Each structure stands twice: as C-alpha cells, then as structure tokens.
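for the writeup, i need someone to sanity check this before i put it in the appendix. the sequnce is what the collaborator sent (i think, or maybe the updated version? ugh). structure was predicted straight from it, no edits. if anything looks off just tell me and ill rerun, i have time this weekend
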Amino acid sequence: FRFFLLFALLFVCITEERFGHLILPVAIVLSVCLILAAGASIVVLALKTIQPCPEWWVLHREKCYYFSTNKTTWNLSEEDCISRGAQLIVVEDQEELELLRQQSRIHLTFWIGLRRKEGWAWINRQAFNSNCMSLTHLIFFNLDGSHTTKGSSISEH
C-alpha cells in the first residue's frame, strides 16, 4: 500500500511537469483508487472482527472451538476435526482446562487431542506435561467419573 502511495505521488509529480493540464483528472483518479483500497482494507478487518469463527463455533481467548454432539470413537472424532480444518483440542493452559470442565457439564464426555503411544503425547507431538495438569482431569470428564469408548469431540481452530 505504501509503495502504491509513493508511486502515485511520483507519477503526479512527473505528470505535472509534462502534462500540466492532466494533473487534476489524474489526481482525482488516484485519490479514488486510494480511497477504495483503504475502504476494502477496513471492510476485511471489520469482517474478521465481526465473525472471527465459523458458524456454530465458539470464540474463547482468540481461538475457535467446535463442540460436536456426535458420539463416536476417538479416531472418527479426530477425522471429523480434520475435515473441519481443525484438530482435536490440545490443552495448553489452566484456562483451557477450565473451558473443558465447563463444557463437560453440557456434553458429558468428549475426546481431546491426547493419545498414548509409548507414553502420553498430544496430537501436535508435544509431550504431555503432568506437572501442569493431571490425567484424571482429562480422561474422566464424564460427571460420574466412568470411562467411555465413545464421546463427542472438541475441535480447535
């Protein structure tokens, strides 16, 4: 945008020297182009502000979450998230863990992006840090504390 503005000013200066009678029409056209470009930038920013998440997703701390109501296996839940351009949720801090606790009251059970392959690891290949949170908080999200083979998924975007 700055390059375009500098080019426009340089063009106006050169045009004035050679074609003095055209300076006003050229200046008007360039001004209209600059206003349209600035307006388009503002519209794009406004749309991002108004709708930061796709429909049916929830915004929480600059991330979008999709809480599926389909009860299915972990593998199918992971595929569902991927098909939405997302991944199963990877819990990064206590606030995100609290979001899961709140949602467990609504959805009862759901899958997250933690799996066991030679130890616990997140699907983004980060090692699970048991100093930050307990596995019991993550595995037994159903209110009665029972284990399940089917659950909803939470995708993050």
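The two ends are 30 Å apart (CA to CA). The mean pLDDT is 70.
thx in advance!!
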